[in-house]
Amino acid sequence: MSNTFLTPSYHWRNRYLLMRHGHSQANAQGKIISSPERGLTSYGLSEQGEQQLVDVLAQWSWPAPTQVVHSDFLRTTNTAARVAAAFGLSMTQEVRLRERHFGELDGQADHHYPDVWAFDAQSAEHAQWQVEPVSRVAARMCAVLEALEQRFTGETVLVVSHGDPLQILLAALAGRPLTQHREQPALLPASITLVGG
C-alpha cells in the first residue's frame, strides 16, 4: 500500500465525499452480506434506507458531486443511483470499493461483527474465519483514491462504499494504526465524510 495518503502535507487534487450506503435489507434482517454471490443482486436498500436518501438529498449541505464512483453491491448501487440522479450524473462501478469479505461468517447474524473487530484490534493481518484482512481492505481502498487522484483534478467525487471499508480507509488516511479502525465513531448508514480539497 502506498503511503502517499498517509502524510498530513499531501495536497489533494480532488475532494472526496465518502458515503456509506443507506440502511439496507441486510441491516434490517441483521445479516452479514459480504460476498458478491449474495450482495450483487440482493439485499438492496430497505424502506428506511430509501427514506434516508430522500432526507439526505433534501438537506444536502456538502459540495455538489461532479463524479460518482460506487461499489457494485446492490445496496451501494441503489445509494449511488439516488444521488447521481439528483445531480444529473452518471455512475462508475468500482469493485475495489466492495464490502469487506467476512469469509465463513457471510450470511450469518451480524452479532458476529464485534468478534471480528476484536481480532482486528490485535492484528491488521488476521484472517480468522477466512475474513479479509484489514490490511488488504486498506490497500484496495487507498488504491481507488490513488487512481482517482491520477485520473481527475478539481473534481468532487462521491465514493459510495460500506461501513468497514470506509472506517478502515479513514484510519489509513489519518495515518493511524489500522488495528484502531473501530476506535473512531462508527459511520452511520447514508452518512458522508469529506476528505481532501
UniProtKB/TrEMBL annotation:
<dbReference type="InterPro" id="IPR029033">
    <property type="entry name" value="His_PPase_superfam"/>
</dbReference>
<dbReference type="Pfam" id="PF00300">
    <property type="entry name" value="His_Phos_1"/>
</dbReference>
<protein>
    <submittedName>
        <fullName>Alpha-ribazole-5'-phosphate phosphatase</fullName>
    </submittedName>
</protein>
<dbReference type="InterPro" id="IPR013078">
    <property type="entry name" value="His_Pase_superF_clade-1"/>
</dbReference>
